[in-house]
Amino acid sequence: MIPVQAKGGKDQIGIVQISQDIRFVEDKFHGMRCRAIAAQFMENEVIALFELTLQDDEIKVVEERHYRLVPAKKLSRDAIRDYRD
């Protein structure tokens, strides 16, 4: 199960929302792995994606990656093929 929270501008990713998402999955989908994701829209068409977990009642970042949004017409044929494969 992959719950997602997305924030833009000056909005911050909140511990309450992420905690609620994780606990909801634990309660309603017992036995399924929860991979809580948060997306933060940043400057210059960049999106930061975080995989988060709840540990000792604190949110911990499992992994963080940054991606730049690019119009499809600016992608090379090789890049498009790589995305499809």
Short synopsis of the structure:
The chain is an alpha+beta fold. It has helices at 15-28, 77-84, and strands at 4-7, 36-41, 46-55, 58-68. It has a 4-stranded mixed β-sheet with strand order 1-2-3-4, covered by helices on one side.
Description:
By secondary structure, the protein is an alpha+beta fold. It has one domain. Helix content is 26%, strand content 36%. It contains 2 helices and 4 strands; from the N terminus they run E-H-E-E-E-H. A 4-stranded mixed β-sheet has the order 1-2-3-4, covered by helices on one side. The longest helix is centred in the N-terminal third of the chain and has 14 residues. It is globular and about 45 Å long. The chain starts with a strand and ends with a helix. The mean pLDDT is 90.
